[in-house]
Amino acid sequence: MNEALILPIIIVILHLINLFCLVLLIRSGIQILFDHPKLYWTDHTTDDNHWLRFGKKIMPKDKLWTSLDEAEDPGKLALPGGTHNLGSARHWHFVTAITWVTTGIIYLGYLFTSGEWQRLIPTDWSVFPKAFDMMYSYLTLNIPAEGATYNALQQLTYAGVIFVLAPLAILTGIALSPALVAKYPGFLKIFGGRRQVARSLHFIVMVLFSLFILVHITMSIGLHFYDSIKRVTLGSTEVDFALALTIFLMVLILLVAFNVWVSFFTLGDQARAQRILTKLYTPVVRLLFGRMKSNQHYTKKDISPFFRVNGYPPKSEEYEKLKANNFKDWKLKVYGKVDKPLEMSLQDIKDLRKQDQITKHNCIQGWTAIAEWGGLPMRDILELCKPHKSAKYVLFHCYDIDEEGREFYEGLRVSDMYDDQTILAYEMNNKPLPIEHGAPIRLRCEKKYGYKMAKYIKSIEFADSYKHIGQGRGGYREDVVFFDWEASI
Fold first, then answer.
1. Alpha-carbon torsion 469, 69, 203, 75, what sign?
2. Measured on CA atoms in the order 45, 51, 54, 55, is the torsion positive or negative?
3. 243 and 382 belong to one structural domain
4. Which of 19, 69, 152, 447 is deepest in the core (most CB within 10 A)?
């Protein structure tokens, strides 16, 4: 038996797990992309400076629109499919990404402990002209025989996928974490200082992985069907073909059936999918990103000319009255598990210490914008109201009420309020906070995604739990569109 044609069963298993993971990552990635189906090379994401756009929606020029209006339906190819299912797609993306990275680490461990890395990493520059010759042979249908070792084109391709494409997928993926780039803004220098470059490259990596899977399967199965079926399923060409083919077909059926089930399961009960999947990946996210503090210091020349609106202003009678009087009658109520409940007017807040900061806003949909915010640090509120030790969470109640009568609210940890760049903002770009961006006051917690930064705030509650509010998931977006509570990646 030719030992060179035998693969350890662990590699066969890792190969199949990798295929399952890549399919789920691509499908969920498509869903994530289509919630903001535009790609940019600059973090100043205006309505028309994208380099690539999917979908047909054109935003109106004569009336207010929000970023939610830009979302497109990616179709059934995406996971889970449909419009505004970003939350569920992210849950699958993160669980699968962790599984994929773990699989990759095990695979690399095998490569370097067994010496198999030498089959993948070129050690001679002659590999490049040989690879071009091999590509010419394939293109002219002079198909070379399958050898015991990789030919030059296979070696370069596999080495590129494993040691270039996969690390780039990981680097561009974590560069989209608002917590990471808030704590270490310099990390984005890898991508020219721009988060959108990382996002665009992440998409390009997805396309390249998709092409690799298609070409790899086509060439392996189409050109060397008999041997490839045996090698990919049982790790050797010296096995029974019928058995190998049976296993291959069973795996293929399982792959298709699993993807169909995942879509139906997720769309059938997104709350259940959210509950199960977040339990799997939240501990990892919390460990890696949960305790990071924002350390952003952009300059006035970095401020974006356009800042998207995310959500329409409240239409309640109470809010309309406050707005008509320029919020002179507005009072912020701070209550719950505190020693000193507060009731403060907008002027009362402005009379306290003011903090200005220029930071990058990261929307969970994918767009970004930089603005200057002025307001009261939340740590000052804590010093005034003196939360009880049992108070673990801060709940921001807002004037927004949806069509079904549900109040908008968001919850964060009390520890998040001590971040130097967590403030109650009443100014934006040195002007009073605009109505469409949350007047009279909004939260800025710069290490989180934008949906955690409550707007149109009417009261702040300190509590030992958030289970008594809404559906008990910690926020309106978590309740209604099933976003994750951590919001740090």
1. positive
2. positive
3. no
4. 447
Q: What is the pLDDT of residue 149?
A: 66
pLDDT in tens, 331-340: 999 999 999 9
Domain extent at residue 375: 300-480
Q: Are residues 99 and 167 in the same domain?
A: yes
Query: How far is it, in rounded angstroms, from Cα 207 to Cα 26?
Result: 9
Are residue 396 and residue 261 in the same domain, yes or no? Answer: no
pLDDT digits (tens, 9 = 90+) for 395-424: 999 999 998 999 999 999 999 999 999 999
* Cα separation, 229 vs 248, whole angstroms: 7
Question: Which among 328, 329, 333, 330 is positioned nearest to 343, based on CA atoms?
Answer: 333
Strands 393-401 and 368-377: unpaired
**DSSP track, 179-247:** HHHHH-GGGGGGGTT-HHHHHHHHHHHHHHHHHHHHHHHHHHHHHSHHHHHHHHHHS-SSS-HHHHHHH
CA distances from 189 to 175, 198, 338, 421 (A): 10, 10, 43, 21
